[in-house]
Each structure stands twice: as C-alpha cells, then as structure tokens.
Amino acid sequence: MKTVYHKADSRGHADHGWLNSYHTFSFANYQNKDRTNFGVLRVLNDDTVSQGMGFGTHPHRDMEIISIPLEGDLEHKDSMGTTAVIKKGEIQVMSAGTGVMHSEYNKNKDEAVKFLQIWIFPKELNVEPRYDQKSIKEGEKINGFQQILSPNKNDDGVWIHQDAWFNLANFKAGNGKNYMLNKKGNGVYAFVLKGSAKVGDRIMNERDGLGIWDTQSFNIEAVEDTEILLMEVPMELPAYLK
C-alpha cells in the first residue's frame, strides 16, 4: 500500500471576500508542482460562498464536475437550459464535454453556502454535455458505505464518464469497516468532512486528505463520530493527457 497525506492546514487558500476557498490540488493562483492531481482527480475545492454571491457564467469543457453541498442552497444555471437548486443531502454532476456555460449562485440572504467542488478527467474527450442531480440523503447509511457516484447509469447515485466510485462513510465512534476497491489500478482519496478516524495506518482529522493506492482494500475506524468522502479513481491518466 502506498499513501500520500495532506493535512487540512497544508491546502492552498484563497479569500476573495465573497468566496473563501481551500484547494487540495493546484488551482488558480495556488500552484504546487507536488500537488497537481491524484490520478484522474484534478480538483478538490472546499468552498464557502457568501450570501447573494456566486460564480458568474463561465465556460468548461472536457471535465466531469461534481458538486456536493455541505450547508445551504446553491442555484445552478447552464447553457443546456438547466435551472436547478442543489442543497445539503444532494449531489450534482455536470459533464462539460464539448463545452458548456454555467453559473452557480448563493441566493440565500441569511446564510453562506458551503460545498465541495470536484473535477475529474473523463475517459475520453468531446462527450455530449449533460447535467444531473440526485438526493443522497434517502440512502444514508450509518456505520457503512453509501455509494453516491459510479460509472454505471443504473447504480446508486449519479454517474460520470470515468471508472470512478464515490462513497460517503458515516461512522459512529468506535465503529469501522473495510473498504474494497472496485477496480484494479484505482486508488482512493479519503477526505474527512467531520470528526476523526484511523484510515489505514493514519489518524485523520477534519478536512485532512489521504490518497491510498497499490492495494485492494483498507480499513476505516472512527475515533469519534465521523463522516468521510471516499473518492475512488483510476491512477493512470487518460491517453489524451500523456
């Protein structure tokens, strides 16, 4: 088993007033040659957007973009004609593919929005753009893994154009479970949303990240009540990036 550990306070940070963002990997003005990606996981941003503010309309292409709200509501609009609001207990995915314009706004007047913005390199370029969002609250599991994303259209959660699986691990203190990887050659980036846990041989606290690869499984044991996002992704980059 190989690992790479990123403490919460080692992340890049940008405070734009309306946006307070922590970057696990290189993004915008934060550039770190040792932290550009974990396999096909390219961006993991921990964003807080102030009341009435947001990201104006801007373009993307050839990227799988996932948003997971942690607090508050976020309004989404795009050039595909989608207008939607995503909130805690939901997951949003947008395949940018051949190109899409979109905006994300916090329309709340009394609270900030906190959400994870995640980008994954797709298997192939120029796919047809698409949007989807689903409730993940209904499938919540205590002391187990809840799948919220996969490559398969008929699986639980949303799907993307990549051999990736996301799970939420929600454990009460003292409980744990072994995670089995879905595909050979994949790795898992574990990101602690709250609490603390022992992941493999590492004690992790809130907003710490741990990349794990060259293994078929690893164990998670909660030190206290803990919620962890597990992002299993291919470690080999697509041919178009080589």
UniProtKB/TrEMBL annotation:
Tagged with keyword Ion transport: no
Claim: Metal-binding is one of the keywords in the record: yes
Gene Ontology terms for molecular function: metal ion binding
Domain Pirin N-terminal: 10-120
Ranges where the Quercetin 2,3-dioxygenase C-terminal cupin domain occurs: 148-233
Cofactor dependence: Fe cation
A Pfam family this chain is assigned to: Pirin_C_2
Cofactor note: Binds 1 Fe cation per subunit.
Keywords (A to Z) from UniProt: Iron, Metal-binding
Record: residues binding Fe cation: H58, H60, H102, E104
Gene3D superfamilies listed in its UniProt record: Jelly Rolls
Cited InterPro entries: Pirin, Pirin_N_dom, Quercetinase_C, RmlC-like_jellyroll, RmlC_Cupin_sf
Family: Belongs to the pirin family.
Name of the protein in question: Pirin family protein
Species: Chryseobacterium oranimense
